[in-house]
Structure formats: structure tokens, C-alpha cells
Amino acid sequence: MNGDLVRVSKRLSAVLRHRPGSVGLTLDEQGWVEVDTLLAAMNAHGRPVTRDMLDAVVAGNDKRRFAISPGADGRDRIRASQGHSVPVDLALPDTPPPAVLFHGTSAGAVPSILESGLVKGRRHAVHLSVDTRTARVVGARRAGPVAILEVDAAAMAAAGHRFQCSANGVWLTAHVPPTFIRRL
Ligand code: HQG
Fold first, then answer.
1. Is 0.90 exceeded by the ipTM?
2. Residue spans of beta strands (DSSP E) within 12-156
3. Best substitution site from 1, 65, 118, 126 to test ligand 1's pocket, by max atoms within 8 Å of Cβ?
4. pTM for this structure?
């Protein structure tokens, strides 16, 4: 993606995950907003985005962060596929996870994680990756060396922990207790 589209993607993430009120929007219960309403709100708040740019971001986004889907009235709606801090219910079904999942983080966070487990913080869920390569990219967003943690998802599921998979393949769960975590 070129620089303009990266900028638009970051703006959309901010509005659709964290601060819809910053452009005067409210998301519906499942996080959707009408595309036309979103574009009008962005334009009115000095952050102009055209429908073509939005479509290019949705299509070209390496993580498929956003999903567009028609509402009951046939009008296009958009939402972020995961990562919210505002209260939305993505209504993702509980799904049996792969046997193992991974989490990339900073090496400095590992002692605390091995003490209290992976906690969701301000997000709605702990985010887990399907492979170490993805986990490494996630962990590299943090300062300092990256640590890759392996999560025994099969044992967690057997113990009654619930998992959901977002539209873009990120696995979500409420909390990963330390006993299911192993540093690779
Ligand atoms: C850490 C990006 C100390 C955790 C990525 C992480 C992902 C603890 C940080 C998505 C801890 C939270 C989410 C504990 C967890 N003690 N540190 N007990 N438990 N942590 O950003 O998983 O680009 O909320 O290891 O690709 O890093 O936004 O979560 O470092 O999919 O689409 O607390 O965000 O996607 O950080 O990343 P985050 P994350 P987007």
C-alpha cells in the first residue's frame, strides 16, 4: 500500500476500533457503520476519504483489517474485523482452535505474562496468531527483542476456554493462564 492508503488505513482503524466519537459517529452493536455515513463523517471532520480510497484500503490491506457487508437495506456497511477497544459484540461463534497458537510480544513482557497469563488489556480479547511468522510480526511492533510464546490451545479448549476466529484469521480468547504458555 502506498503512503496515502496507509494513512487512510490508520485513520479508519482509529475510528472503527477506538474513537468513532472523534468524527461524531456511533457504531452499531456489532461494530458496523454505513459506508456513506462514515465517508461523510470523515470528510466533515477534515479527514477526507473517498469511496475509491476506502475500497483500495479494504482490498489492499495486508491483514484484511476491515470488512464490508451490505445491511438489511442493501446499503454497504463497514467494520473492523478485530482489535476494538469500544464496546462492540462482533458476534463471532465459538470455534475449536488449532492445537497450538502463538503470541509475539516483547521479551521484557515475558516474566509478567508467565506470572499472570496473557491478559486482554484495553482490547476485547487476547490476540493469538496461527503461526510463528505472524506472531513475530506482531511482536516486532514492540520495542526491544521479540519473544514468541506457544499457547496450548487444545488443552485450553479441553479445559473449557472459548475461542473465536476473526474474519481476518486472528484467534481471540478472553485470557490465557500461564500454565498453557511456553516460551519458544
Ligand atoms: C502484552 C495488531 C505484560 C501483549 C497485531 C502485548 C495483533 C502483557 C500487549 C493485534 C500481559 C498488548 C493485537 C501481561 C499481555 N503482562 N504484558 N500479563 N498480557 N501482554 O496491541 O496482541 O495492526 O493490545 O503481549 O497484529 O500485541 O492493530 O495486543 O504485547 O493482531 O490490526 O500486552 O494488533 O493488529 O498489546 O496485538 P496489544 P497484541 P492491528
1. yes
2. 33-34, 66-70, 76-80, 100-106, 118-119, 126-128, 146-152
3. 118
4. 0.89
